[in-house]
Amino acid sequence: MLRKFTKHPFLLPRLFVWGMMFMPIFFILNLFIPAYFSAKKRFESIYADFSHAPYLPIKVLAADGKLLGEISVAEISYEALPKALVETIVLEYDSLFWTNDGINIPSFSLQGSIAQSMARNATRSIGRRRGNFLIENYFWLPLIFEMSFTKEELFTIYCNELFWDWDSKGIENASQGYFRKTISEINLQEIAFLVGMSENPSGKRDSSRALNIRNRQLDRMAAHNIYPKAWKDSLKSLPLGVYPEKPENGMQTYLKEAVHEYLKEWQKIHYQENIYEAGLEVYTRIDSNMQAIAEANVRKMMPNIQTSFEKNSINKQEVKYDFWHKRLEYGRSEKELAKAIFEKREVSVFTWEGEKDTVMSPWEERQHYKKMQQIGFCAISPKTGQIKAYIGGIDKRFFPKDNVQSLKQIGSAIKPFFYGFALETDIYPCKVHPAGLNKGMEYSMGTAPPYFKIDGHATREYYQRFGFHSPLDTTSTLKIGMFDLSLMELIAAYTVFANKGTYIQPTLISHISDKSGNRFEIPVVSWQATSPSIAAGILGALKNIAMEDYGTGMSLAAKYGLKGEVACKTGNTATSYHMAWFTGICPDLVTTVWVGCDERNRDRDNIGIFTAMPIVGEWLKSLQQANLLLPQNFEKYEGKLPNMECNPNIASSKIDTEGWE
Description:
Structural class: alpha+beta
Number of helices: 24
Number of strands: 16
Strand content: 5-15%
Radius of gyration: 31 Å
Largest sheet: 5 strands, mixed
Shape: elongated
């Protein structure tokens, strides 16, 4: 081989030169061709979303047929768009839109063309983990969009996909939310506001900052002759004319969003059509009168809880500054970072007196929201699993997290389930608690001594029978509640004790009908979680907490004048006191409330009997006064109850109450 090469001394240099010449070609082909086929494949699913019949609102109804709200994704045609709006959006987002081929080279590294923006938004969830991400999103997908749609169709799709503040998707929804007008009815100053707010959604509706955004947009429109310059001053002097808040905002929006999320999952398995085209009517299990009373009580009581929290907070340390240092990775200097964090600007913030326009820095705004007490509230019929009332938070515009569905540490609210496990596995009560299970439950003292070892796998399996589907480990945290569950999981588990040990999966929706007359019933799923005797034994201990004048329930029944029998259980997260639980159990209704804040500020008053219990107590009292909850006694268990006592002669006055909730 070496001799052959010596006979051709120029072969190696030539091979090197040829390699250098053709390597870029091979590299480009290897990079662009796979990216093309990947982009084409993804376009097929994107096209299915873009090409559809007109969307119809989804009606969400209470059990009595009362309309609770609508889930709508309103869309428009190109002909309905005012000419000035089209010109303004093109000016703002892609000045070369009508002449480019989907790839805006001058702004390639910035926003890009409208087609590039659409491609980027449509594949945002993929992230930058794919090697050909940039080539797909900035080259092939925009080109495929341009080849598949006319310019008018492309522009219309873009307008229908834009997002405004909160959850306004599409320019028609934004127009109706801001002005209660269709997009074809809006005027010049409203066009300027809409386009300006699409880039600055944090401007917050009716505020001086929003006015400045609109007026800057009016200046740009006049400078590009979208309307006569002589009109500029008169248009800028007009008020914004926007509604201060979206219709159906606040507490009820959480309920609509829960229905919406259920429908998206239901569609994957049970419905072949597009849910936004089917004219769906969703009949929930919600009792509209109960829902109204729950919302009124929360609005009445939460401001007092907020005041108490701010007055009694033990740990008043501010949010860690380290959070903001994450932004340094984007190249900001310490000085630039400090300016961005502490520079004041006009904002609109949530208060219990209503939305408030003020001047705050991002740092101050974060402090304001992190100390804000929030709530999760749910009420379920234990015999049917029907959800009667649902409050996911105090205002979804400012606090998007649904506190009924999100995971939170449950603390000592786990005691009834761990004690049930001890009874089922014949663990002597003294081993679980030196005062016995009844006293341990009533005073909510430590669940079990540190040296008490548990079978983690068996305990987890027992909890899962109560519907705990969130991830659970097999460590000692299972006995003290140092793990996270959703409020929905917890309340459904508590219904077992009022239902002879039977678990019924909570149902928010009874049936769904579409415009074609099809009706889809939502099945009820149930199973035996524990024995009737253990359920009766635990219920008896929980009943003592509410009916007797001792324990953590502090006589819930007498304090709020409740008739009939009631049981309850408090809960808080160990010693941090940053969140509290309370569950009230009646024969026909179980209610669980969570009160807390995102930041772990310590507040000695933020415990079950001072924050969450009053909300449940007032709610049950209001229901009985309105004859929506009839006084009843729990069905008596005729069999033999499990032994829950360690020393039945122990006096309650001798029990060490340190560590109470």
